[in-house]
Amino acid sequence: APAPAPAPAAAPPRYTHEVALPPDWPPLAAGDPLATLPLPAAFEALQFPFELDPFQKKALAAVDRGESVLVAAHTSASKTVVAQYAVATSLRGKQRVVYTSPIKALSNQKYRELMAQFRDVGLMTGDVSINVDASVLVMTTEILRNMLYRGHELVREVQWVIFDEVHYMRDKERGVIWEECIVLAPSAARFVFLSATIPNAAEFAGWIAATHGRPCHIVSTPHRPTPLEHWALPAGADGLYLLKSADGAFHTTNFDAAMLALRKPAGAAAAAKAGSRDSPNLRRLLAQLQRRQLTPAIIFAFSRRECEGAAMHARSLEPLGEEQQAAVRQVFEAAVDTLSEADQRVTQIEAMLPLLLRGVAVHHSGL
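Above: the chain's sequence. Below: its structure in token form.
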């Protein structure tokens, strides 16, 4: 008789949940709510106009219990939902909450988002202070660290501290700022940590639990809402090669074909110009992206010269439609009007509009 067909592999779980306990806590009994983290009948602090993902519900359940939680998920997984719920929970209890981010630009963005949703929001960065007496304060992590050092009155009133992009803690130069903030935070505070997927989530949560003597939940999901594919454009080749598809499958045939194209004389000659302003690969890449409708796209160049060269090649692209061009002109002229007359005559400013009308923008350190 033929052998039975193997059973299909089980699908990976949509999320995982663990809880880290302080070292002096006894092991949890089977079925302990701290370990199972049952979902409430409803999340009353804030209603969302969409169905929550299972990992979001699990993380919100931790916030509902007043317990710290580390949420590790890929970009675009809507981790911010957990932060929003923590903010709403604090406001409902007439308590203060701090939302920290690693950079000023992100702090400004989060301030605008939270301001539109909750209104009672302030901002503190090294450059700007707005409504510093608000119940919700958005600030850079450095600002929070400085306030903790000074024993500022605000930090004694905070119920929740939200650390966005907490995987920055692994940065050799700036990671110590996150460590100091966590160590110096008041014992009454609870934490929401939002992070990209990290390999040592359990170790990190264990350190949090040991530092503050309270449990810290870990909710993580391997699911990637935005598909990620890896393509290659070999120097001198005419087409794009799909190397790894969204389901994780590696395409060996395409990889071999890409390597073969790279070894051809035309590929070697084009590779010699890679990174230069005159690289033919940039023209081919732009044409391929437009042909395959893979725009909008971000092209990273590792030199200012190559960045500007890519923009010059973009002059061959089709202009935007008339309605889009009119909108671009309106925004551009409004922005330029805020500059001094001398700045308006800067070469880079004058060269910007023709590119913008083709849907192309440039950003580098020389701007």
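The first helix runs from residue 33 to 36.
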